[in-house]
Amino acid sequence: MRTTARRALVSVGFAAGLPALLVAAWALATQGTTSLYFPSPARVAQAFTRTWLAPETITGDVLPSLARFGIGVLLSIVIGVVAGTAIGATPWLRALLEPMLEFFRAIPPVVLVPVLMLLLGIDDTMKLAVIVSGSVWPVLLNTIEGVRAMDPVLTDTSRSYRVRGALAYRYFVLPAASPQIMAGIRLCLSIGLILMVISEMFASSSGLGYQIVYFQRQYMVAEMWSGILLLGLVGVVVAAVFQLVERRVLHWYHGSREVARG
Amino acid sequence: MAENTPLLSVRELSKTYPGANGPVEAIGSISFDVHPGELVCIVGPSGCGKTTLLKCLAGLLPPTSGSVMLDGAEVSAPPKKMALVFQEYGRSLYPWLTVRDNVALPLKARGVPRAERLAAVERAVEEVGLAHALDTYPWQLSGGMQQRVAIARAVAYQPEVLVMDEPFAAVDAQTRADLEDLVRRVWKDLGVTVLFVTHDIDESVYLGGRVLVLSSSPTVVQEDLAIDLPAERDQLTTRALPRFTELRTHVYGQIQRAKRGEAVPAVR
Question: Lowest CB count within 10 Å: A79, A206, B61, B62, which one?
Fold first, then answer.
């Protein structure tokens, strides 16, 4: 009992230790500073509460941004997994599409922003399109690879026991590809967050990206830094949630690998 | 029982693979019948196309020519009345499903109602002695236990033909003896027809009511041998019988001849 408590304390110490040290170093370096560009942590913390904890920014900027991120990522996952399983399971479709997919994947989504603005206007549809255009690829390509690499013995098993259609999709194809799919989703999340910010930097009037650019242009440097801090925190929370989900979804995968390692 | 109508009938089955240096003839021409309730073992030298033959029987691979008939109907896709147990137990069970769900999935695919399904699963898992492991994952079990799960899945499926592809090649000798007796018991208890492919000569003689000896590739049936050992088999006493030794020596001789390429097609 005591040892578990101590172990928990140690792991919290490890997780929080380095950030605490960095903030301390930051505080020391900016002590009594008058620099416009590098405010002290206290200044940034003050700007943070004032800017991001105000109800109108929460409802007007933070939540819309998070919603765009969430919907964009969700769309990417659904499109990537559905299209990926179809392409991965159909050899001729794969042969037909794979070179083209590599081509589209290589295009940086940022350069598509003006094109998408022309096509879709400047509202949320455009922003979602920017997010999906970049974050769908890792899910799609990983799903294709995961479905393609399914164990032939398990495929024969499913065929011989006539496990087909929706049942095979749910209990065989998806779980078999899930380790690869989850690796794709991890990448999708980080790309999605970046593109959420970028999509809001162009022709926008709300959102985290918009606010950060606005503060930058107004020389509200502490506020700008606080926005960057918020993005980092969102990233940490997203990663933590992902890890929780991943551990649940892939518990069999981690478990069997642990057994295989002995 | 209509002893004269075969349940499974293989006629001049051949399989040729396209190869880099022209086509490779894996199976020359195989013909044999299996009657309802038989336990037939198939042995042959390694690389004689046992697995190819099995995949053709199971409707997983189309033969180049010839036919497989099950219950009077031509096998062109995996048939409803057949269950398979593969050699690679570690790869034929779904690692993301528990033992219970692994055994239940084929029944679910067949549309067996839930309550009936769960009862059938529990019966089958009990039959193979794994009632305590229903809610564990396959990878938490030993190799022999995993193969028992695969057998339970086949048993729960209630097939007319149970096809086993070298199922015990990858388990240790003691587990293997237990599993052999399990197959005999399941065969007797359920009255199912069993087709058991192995490369182990002793195993084929110990288990089978009949042994088909295959030649090396291009494969034909070299001999169709009836095993006239007592029906009640026992690892100690049966294997000590002089007749057991005679039969295994005979099969061994046939396999050696097959390896040297002195293929003599069975006359029977």
Answer: B62
User: pLDDT band for position B210 (50/70/90)?
Assistant: very high
pLDDT in tens, B46-104: 777 888 899 999 999 999 999 999 998 899 999 999 999 998 888 899 999 999 999 99
Number of Cβ within 10 Å of residue B35's Cβ equals 18
ipTM above 0.90, yes or no: no
- Chain B contact for A255 (CB, 8 A cutoff): yes
Q: Does B121 touch chain A (CB under 8 A)?
A: no
Residues of A in contact with B92 (CB under 8 A): 153-154, 156-157
Helices (H), chain B: 50-57, 89-92, 99-110, 114-127, 143-156, 173-190, 201-207, 237-240, 242-260
Question: Which of B32, B4, B64, B67 minimizes the C-alpha distance to B197?
Answer: B32
Residue A162 pLDDT: 94
How big is the CA angle at B49 (ends B48 and B53), to the nearest 5 degrees? 140
Give the nearest partner residue to A161 out of B106, B139, B140, using CB atoms.
Answer: B106
- Which single residue is written with the structure tokens 């206290």? A42
Contacts of A163 in chain B (CB under 8 A): 105-106, 109
- The domain ranges of chain A are 48-261
Q: How far is CA A226 from CA A38, A43, A55, A230, B256, in A?
A: 12, 9, 16, 6, 81
- Show the domains of chain B with their CATH numbers: 1-81+159-268 (3.40.50.300), 90-158 (no CATH)
A85 and chain B: CB distance < 8 Å anywhere?
no
Instruction: Please tell me whether the peptide bond between B36 and the residue prior to it is cis, using omega within 30 degrees of 0.
Output: no
Question: Which CA distances in Å does A178 have to A173, A182, A184, A185, B103?
Answer: 8, 6, 9, 10, 21
A106: contact with B, CB 8 A cutoff: no
What is the separation, in whole angstroms, between the first and last Cα of chain B? 23
> What CATH architecture is A48-261?
Orthogonal Bundle (1.10)
Chain B positions touching A175 (Cβ under 8 A) are 94, 96
CB contact under 8 A, A171 and B59: no
Average pLDDT over residues A2-16: 84
Model confidence, pTM: 0.87
Nearest to A161 among B55, B97, B157 (CB): B157
- pLDDT category, A178, cuts 50, 70, 90? very high
Contact B59 A160 (CB under 8 A): yes
